[in-house]
Amino acid sequence: MEIQNLKPRSGSDTLRLGDSDELVVMENFGSLPQSEIRLENHGLVVICTKGIAQFDYDGQQIQLHKNDLYLYMAHSVVTNFMSSPDFNCRQIWFSRSELWNINMYGEVSLADLPYLKQHPTVHLTDDDMTLLDEYFQLLCRRMRDQSPMLYSDIVRSLVSTMMLEMLCMMRRQDSENAGTGSLYRQRLADKFMRLVEESDGRIRRVDDFANQLNITPKYLSTLLKETMSRRPSEMIKLFTLKAIERRLRFTDMTMQEIANDLNFPNASFFGKYVKEHLGMTPLEYRRKYHK
To answer: Cβ contacts of residue 224 below 8 Å, gap of 6+?
Structure first.
């Protein structure tokens, strides 16, 4: 399903940035959809304010209780949703492109993503909930009043700040759990992630990163599977797409210049890669999202 199929899509408790589904805030929502959720272009933040919910998230069973924060990442699958009669939550739906608009891509390290994928929930303290409640009330108040000339910028700034607070809360949990597992293997996995970030999309072969780490590609695959439940190729593709999107959105580089910069064989190969992974040609993407 996509967010277009979600009910309700309007009403006093459902707020949008403009008329699109790029950024949607729901103040009170008694459930998640009963059908399977498999969003390709949206992420979802759920903050449980009352009751209990249970569902399967990419094969792992998730339970939400009061004060739990849950982060859904695109391309994941949620099934078998059940909830208590009194369940209620707040939700923020955001598209991939909206993450660029609110500048979250500049703040979230690629190294955060595997952890967030493996640990999509965090239990918030009462102080955390009070802080997020203050943000949420201010965000909703501002989204209802669309009169300011800088309305969109104000809303995106509030969402960005609120999501940074959530990221801090989730990183805090990561720090508290840092003693588990092999320290050496975790450091090696972290080093791989730094190398992927530093390559800025220019290196896309698992073998090349394994050589830099002085390990075999097979060991690198095993390492990431055990420490992050991900494949090296997935992380490489993720950052390659991030590098491509940044150049298409925020530069005037030609397709050939981008292809050369990112070490693609030619502009035609680059175009096919973008079409396959972003669902549109580089030119279509630039026309839609170029700033």
So the answer is: 114, 189, 192, 230, 231, 232, 235
